[in-house]
Amino acid sequence: MEICIFQTGEPLHIDEGNYRPMRCMLLADKLIEKGHKVTIISSAFFHQRKIHRSKHFKLFKINKNLRIYLIPSTGYKKHISLSRIFDHIILSFNLYLFLKKYKNFNPDRVFVGYPPIITSFVITRWSIIKKIPLMIDIKDKWPETFIEPFPQLLKPLAKLLFKPYFMLARYAFKKANKISTISEGFSSWTKDFIQDKKSDKYYVYPLTRKTFLLSEDEIFKSIKFWENKNINILNDQYLCFIGSYSRSFNFEFIYDLSRELFLKFPYLKIILCGSGDKYKSLIKKFSSNKNIFVFGEIDKYNAKFLIKNALATLAPYNRNINFNDHIPNKIIESLENGIPFITTLEGTLKNIIKEYNNGIFLSEDKKSDIKFLEKLIKEKNYRINLSNNATKSYKKLFDFNSVYNSLIDNLISM
Q1: 5 and 36 in contact (C-beta within 8 Å)?
Q2: Is the pTM of this model over 0.90?
């Protein structure tokens, strides 16, 4: 079969740098491994780097089983901005032009990464006209998350303003033959959003990734990499964060937590790695504390080695309707490496910790829960227990082959 994957906001096979593959690349590679052909349609604008891969329509023929079409758009500098909304509008229009031009493009199945909203509508409408079975993969609660930041008095006006997005999203969800989501909470939200309780249409496929091992040479290079940044990975005790420096995370929480921890554990380090809108402001914010390190983006090898040797990873997500039901790939990556995670999120992540004892939940006041974090730092046996539980829960909940084999079976059987 030929499968069309539409996905924006993720690394592609053509991107330079050692990026950890996400849903698009992982699904494409697994499909090809099973003997299928794959066409990826994606944005020419690279979300992670905020750069243009191309400013024009462009085709990359990777091999006989994989080709990638890039659709141009205007680009943007901030995760949350009017320029990003405008970028998605232009991307959607250019996607429409692309699909209209290539009339002979008739894949057997279509897999759509959601969001963006308008592109999902465009390709859903195209699939219906072409009579091609379609699966939508929902990873964010757009457009409801658009409304949340508004004050209560302005929410009715915001809902009216964004009503077209609600209509387009509901159309795409209702018309999809199958819907995959990243957690049970997201699946329930989707059903409520379109008022549809059909159980045979919805499936849960977490954002797990294919595991990989570091070679001796990669370990040696990573040790040197971190030594050059004044980090002794094998001997230092540290907590780490790897992600985007964006409004999704509560870095004020890390600041407050560090002040409390460093009084009792002056040798402890906190290492932050990533890119995003808040990078410069975070460097400034933490500049007075020598135990907090703020670095830019790192590759998958140095990231894995950093996580693998940490006491725990930090996941200080801001509480909102999107993240409360989320199981982010950062959490899964931590468990994959046998490392517990620390989170402030109620909902799905707190429930996972409660059931599997594979991390530490900290309430926002921290007073009632910080004793567990202090125990993690002081007691080796407690760390070993959490680490073992992290590995066991990863194998049970997020095994890569189990997740993607099931996803592909459902995609092909439509």
Answers
A1: no
A2: yes
